[in-house]
Amino acid sequence: MVSKLGRWSAVALGWMLVALAVAQERVAVDAQNAPFMYADGERAAGVYPALLQAGFHHIGVAVRIEALPWSRALAGLDQAELGVGGIYKNSERVQKYDYSAPIFVEKLVLYVRRDKRLVFTGMQDLAGLRIGVIRGWSYGDAFDLARRAGRVETEEVASDAQNFSKLESKRLDAIVAVEQAGTAQLASGHYPSVIALQTPLAVNPTHLAFHKSADKRALLARFDSAIEAMRRSGEHDRLVGRALLKQP
């Protein structure tokens, strides 16, 4: 026979497990943006999962980080089902989302074929070109506005590798990629005709964001304090360096 004390202990344990499940935050990252965030089997890997996991650990909050297609991650963010890490701010998004302080800064680089003598000084230099981008991404207000106004023609794919392949085979005039991700693609040796332009398209801080209706401002403030402490201690740089070395 189970004692009354034993039954109460089992009930208490059950409620504790429910409370832990409820308390766990759910954060999504892009599944195809190595080395910053990507799916490694069943787990999320890369720079942002490492920084997010450490930041939440520092503030004592359980977190489940999922690598999802970017469009699905953004849909979950719009429905307040989850947070998203590694996301840019733009004028449209700040109306909907609450943001952390920057967790990293990405340099967006234009890549062209060696035989394409493109000099980039501003958006006007991209007029009439077919530019490869990642589906669902923002590239900063200036580029996004030029796209919406039809001054820049873009073609969307799911990954950097697809864009580099299309550029190598002359199906695009230029592509945009985050510098470290582009460097990794060039290092593969599969794209001998492709080079990086020296002038960046944009330099964009990245953040953790939640939908405003989720009311996570207090959590984001605690997370900001943790990231700042990690920067001061050197842990931030160590995690970034380790994640970049492990890129697929």
From TrEMBL:
Coiled-coil stretches: none
Domain of life from the UniProt record: Bacteria
Classification via InterPro entries: Solute-binding_3/MltF_N (IPR001638)
Presence of keyword Secreted: no
Secretion signal, residue range per the UniProt entry: 1-23
Span of domain Solute-binding protein family 3/N-terminal: 24-247
Name this protein carries in UniProt: Amino acid ABC transporter substrate-binding protein
